[in-house]
Amino acid sequence: MGEAGSLKRKTVSGMFWSLGDLIGNQGMQFLIQIILARMLLPEHFGLIGMILIFAALSNSLIDSGFTQALVREQQANQTDYSTVFYFNLAVSLFIYLSLYSAAPMISRFYQQPDLIPIIRVLSIGVMINAFAIVPRAMYTKEIDFKVQMQANLAASIVSGVVAIGMALSGFGVWSLVGRTLAMNGTQTVVLISKKKWLPSLEFSGKSFKRLFGFGWKLLLSGIIDTIFSNIYYLIIGKQYSAAQLGYYTNASRFSDIAAQTLTSSIARVSYPVLSGIQDDLARLRQSYRQLLKVTAYLVFPVLAGLAAIGEGLIRLVFGEQWVPMTLYFQLLCFAGMLYPIHALNLSILQVKGRSDLFLYLEILKTALFSVLIVAAIWLDTGILGLIVALILNSYLCLFINTFFSSRETGYSVIEQLKDLAPFYVLALSMSLTVFAAGNTLPLHGLVVLPIQISIGILFYLGGSKVLRLQELPFVFQLILPIVKKNAPVK
What we know:
With 490 residues, this protein is an all-alpha fold. It is 84% helix and 0% strand.
């Protein structure tokens, strides 16, 4: 079938297992989240939300950009892997000791004494995660997401059982701590046992210098991005009650199930695939354009549709006590629509080795986001104003990211926006139609939701036919052979 056909099969197979991970793992986590939300209080989720920024920042520091460096490195060897492993382990120990010592100070900042033991126990997950970074990079480099899906699904099940058992036993917020540690531990054990890789007793300064030379800019970019992606947990946790932060935390996690998980699913497949053709500009541009269009076609209707059915969905699955988070969730869905597009644009910069430009972009976008956050706080617009600032930032960053990626691929900003426009308009029209149907049908929520979803699917598929969007048959042509191949034999 040739090199192009092999690349297509490899990409689609990776996407299939990556999406399988999305459906299985995130579906399971969503189910667990629903059960825990009905058993625990918003305040419990708010307490965990207060320290999310520290956990996320810790994981960025441990990775140090080495995962991307290893994936991009076409001739990575045992010495490279061992060097990264020992460095990650040392950094994780340093971070754990730092968080352990800083726990009282963080507790005083939020005026929440209960945070001290929570931080000290939850930080153990930082060291557990360090053991899985190299095996995960190996699987990603091989575009093998089947094992990662198995690890994530096993982790979701085990952590869910642990958390629900603890919640039933009256452990409250500690149920969420136990869930996180159980998830980290299970993922690490499965990845290590499946890969059967052990580090050599060697640390190469030459390997470290080469890999860190590429990765440090991504590390700094990741730190900046992590801080500003999680800054709202810090601001809301400090300025508002734990319950308010709990509403925002669950709204954010609920929308992230679709937005960030789809982003991760697409980015982790596209990066190794595009890295393999980084020197063939014509193929890179063509493959990137195809990925961008298919991504928009699949992601836009999911997020727009979730926003349309937000209130009924939250009332049904989380219960009445969580209805105040509805508007947060709906707005975050519209911000999240563009996350996968951002990820693809930034992947191009990594593929082309432009970690310097990646860092410059992160600083530029951080400055922009800072202005928007300060404006929202100064105008005293509350949590809703902060979320609106997030939406504005997401749409403004679209122009910034596409401009710089176009310089590396020749795929101009105008071309990208023209390619994205039909999917965006169709998804938005579908969302408005579904929302209107939910507000006009004189039926109970249990009946309205399936009707709304059916209307949304029919509207989007019908619109695809009317507009003659090639992505509909393209998606079916790519997915069906994979489904048939992996279907159980009778």
